[in-house]
């Protein structure tokens, strides 16, 4: 059959890729900037409570499921979730994994932090500069 050799070659490439396993993208090793350090301090603070669920060691998650509170209405075209809870995701490489939130309703980290409404941690009381610092830190993970 015509094209069968090409298909077999593609399959071999896929097999080699799958056997090698997925590896994390390379991360530049560098010191945090002053703004990123402020964001890290906010992230780990008792006031913001980000690190309560996104535990820094080992992967910025506690792997626990939490109910949504307050519950958000589903996005247009989606049905109500009968079990409205979400397992805490890892924040590793979060800067490159848009869209955000369990249903992808936030296209940027800034939007997520600004419109979080204290659903994840306590970000409502943060100033604009503090929110920017927090986002800057999150992009380093």
Major sheet, described briefly?
2 strands, antiparallel
Radius of gyration: 19 Å
Give the percentage of residues in beta strands.
under 5%
How much helix is in the residues? 25-40%
| Unreliable residue runs | none
Number of strands: 2
Count of alpha and pi helical runs: 5
Strand order of the largest sheet: 1-2
What is the H/E string?
HHHEEHH
**Average pLDDT taken over every residue:** 85
Q: First CA to last CA: what distance?
A: 49 Å
Question: Structural class of the secondary structure composition?
Answer: mainly alpha
Explain what this protein looks like in three dimensions:
With 141 residues, the chain is mostly helical. Strands 1-2 form a two-stranded antiparallel ribbon. The longest helix is centred in the first third of the chain and has 17 residues. The mean pLDDT is 85.
What layout of secondary structure does this protein have?
Layout: H1 4-20, H2 34-44, H3 50-53, E1 65-67, E2 85-87, H4 109-115, H5 128-138
Antiparallel strand pairs: 1-2
Helix pairs in contact: 2-5, 4-5
Keywords:
35% helix, 2 strands, two-stranded antiparallel sheet, mainly alpha, 141 residues
Brief characterization of the structure:
This protein has 5 helices and 2 strands; from the N terminus they run H-H-H-E-E-H-H. It is mostly helical.
């Amino acid at each position: 059959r015509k094209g069968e050799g090409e298909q077999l070659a593609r399959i071999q490439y896929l097999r080699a890729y799958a056997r090698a396993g997925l590896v994390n993208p390379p991360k530049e090793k560098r010191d945090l900037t002053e703004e990123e350090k402020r964001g890290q301090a906010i992230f780990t603070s008792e006031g913001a409570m980000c690190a309560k669920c996104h535990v820094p060691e080992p992967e910025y998650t506690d792997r626990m499921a939490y109910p949504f509170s307050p519950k958000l209405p589903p996005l247009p075209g989606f049905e109500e979730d009968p079990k409205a809870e979400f397992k805490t995701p890892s924040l590793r490489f979060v800067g490159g994994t848009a869209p955000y939130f369990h249903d992808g309703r936030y296209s940027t980290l800034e939007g997520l932090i600004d419109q979080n409404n204290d659903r994840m941690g306590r970000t409502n009381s943060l100033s604009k500069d503090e929110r920017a610092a927090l986002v800057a830190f999150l992009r380093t993970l």
